[in-house]
């Protein structure tokens, strides 16, 4: 060990979080795992570690990716480091013992391989008491239809991170309309380039800015469905 080596466990919380942003930027998986565990041991809530250390770190990566300072191979390493941190947090976020609220099918749309945000939404939804069927990435409309048929979810969730793939959400919703099943499900959409207006334009029930909003929105719609069923 050289004199310059940083001992993560000796850093104060705020320094450690900044160090995690650097380590995520540098794609240092083991350091991210170690620091994630340290923050948890210090009593941080899993959601705080997720948002303040990991998601914020990835936001910084995204800026330099956009500006041509980082390239795909480097960002892939960052993504792997982030996933390693999320892997540690997952059981803590998922196993809350919340009562079952409903079922969601979620996937990233065709042409798009970004899955970190979608995975995060899945975890948070599970933590809130939803059964989640994760279709993974690059899903053509047929995959959504097959999963709808097989699992009969309450909610269909779609994720897109590219301006070139987000219009595909309309393909899925239009196909659901053609088949006469659109109104049987709550359709929620999300992903960095989307906004409220886009969600309305493609015919989704709601656009969800982040995973926490997705959970709140899903709960709200489940409450409405429950009330409708009772008054029918
Ligand atoms: Co990509 N990429 N990428 N990338 N990548 C973006 C999206 C980009 C904005 C970067 C940039 O230029 N600043 C840009 C898109 C530009 C655009 O379309 N206008 C971009 C590009 C261009 C590309 C490639 C085309 C690059 C290339 O090949 N030249 C290529 C495309 C590949 C493809 O999909 N076909 C590509 C590839 C990659 C990697 C493979 C290297 C890697 C993905 C690894 C992986 O996911 N396994 C990657 C990454 C990591 C990013 C950035 C840096 C980070 C994305 C991320 O994970 N964020 C991203 C920059 C950015 O977004 N600022 C970028 C963290 C995550 C927690 O946030 O995904 O937004 P997010 O999810 C949030 C919300 O959006 C929301 O909740 C989540 C949690 O709070 N949400 C939902 C997301 N999905 C939801 C679904 C819901 C509800 C809410 O359903 C109900």
UniProtKB/TrEMBL annotation:
<feature type="domain" description="B12-binding">
    <location>
        <begin position="101"/>
        <end position="232"/>
    </location>
</feature>
<dbReference type="GO" id="GO:0050667">
    <property type="term" value="P:homocysteine metabolic process"/>
</dbReference>
<dbReference type="InterPro" id="IPR006158">
    <property type="entry name" value="Cobalamin-bd"/>
</dbReference>
<comment type="similarity">
    <text>Belongs to the methylamine corrinoid protein family.</text>
</comment>
<dbReference type="InterPro" id="IPR050554">
    <property type="entry name" value="Met_Synthase/Corrinoid"/>
</dbReference>
<dbReference type="GO" id="GO:0008705">
    <property type="term" value="F:methionine synthase activity"/>
</dbReference>
<dbReference type="GO" id="GO:0046653">
    <property type="term" value="P:tetrahydrofolate metabolic process"/>
</dbReference>
<dbReference type="Pfam" id="PF02607">
    <property type="entry name" value="B12-binding_2"/>
</dbReference>
<dbReference type="InterPro" id="IPR036724">
    <property type="entry name" value="Cobalamin-bd_sf"/>
</dbReference>
<dbReference type="GO" id="GO:0031419">
    <property type="term" value="F:cobalamin binding"/>
</dbReference>
<dbReference type="InterPro" id="IPR003759">
    <property type="entry name" value="Cbl-bd_cap"/>
</dbReference>
<dbReference type="InterPro" id="IPR036594">
    <property type="entry name" value="Meth_synthase_dom"/>
</dbReference>
<dbReference type="Pfam" id="PF02310">
    <property type="entry name" value="B12-binding"/>
</dbReference>
<protein>
    <submittedName>
        <fullName>Cobalamin-binding protein</fullName>
    </submittedName>
</protein>
<dbReference type="GO" id="GO:0005829">
    <property type="term" value="C:cytosol"/>
</dbReference>
<keyword id="KW-0479">Metal-binding</keyword>
<dbReference type="GO" id="GO:0046872">
    <property type="term" value="F:metal ion binding"/>
</dbReference>
<feature type="domain" description="B12-binding N-terminal">
    <location>
        <begin position="7"/>
        <end position="101"/>
    </location>
</feature>
<keyword id="KW-0170">Cobalt</keyword>
């Amino acid at each position: 060990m050289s004199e310059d080596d940083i001992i993560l466990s000796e850093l104060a919380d705020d320094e450690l979080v900044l160090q995690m942003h650097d380590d995520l930027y540098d794609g240092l998986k083991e350091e991210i795992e170690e620091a994630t565990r340290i923050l948890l041991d210090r009593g941080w809530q899993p959601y705080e570690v997720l948002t303040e250390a990991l998601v914020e770190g990835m936001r910084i990566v995204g800026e330099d990716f956009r500006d041509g300072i980082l390239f795909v191979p480097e960002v892939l390493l960052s993504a792997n480091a982030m996933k390693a941190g999320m892997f540690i947090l997952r059981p803590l976020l998922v196993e809350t013992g919340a009562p079952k609220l409903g079922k969601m099918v979620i996937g990233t749309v065709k042409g798009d391989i970004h899955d970190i945000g979608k995975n995060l939404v899945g975890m948070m939804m599970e933590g809130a008491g939803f059964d989640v069927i994760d279709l993974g990435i690059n899903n053509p409309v047929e995959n959504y239809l097959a999963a709808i048929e097989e699992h009969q979810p309450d909610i269909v969730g779609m994720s897109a991170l590219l301006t070139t793939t987000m219009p595909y959400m309309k393909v899925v919703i239009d196909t659901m309309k053609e088949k006469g099943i659109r109104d049987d499900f709550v359709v929620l959409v999300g992903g960095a380039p989307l906004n409220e207006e886009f969600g309305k334009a493609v015919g989704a029930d709601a656009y969800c800015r982040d995973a926490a909003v997705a959970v709140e929105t899903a709960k709200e719609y489940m409450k409405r469905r429950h009330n409708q069923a009772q008054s029918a």
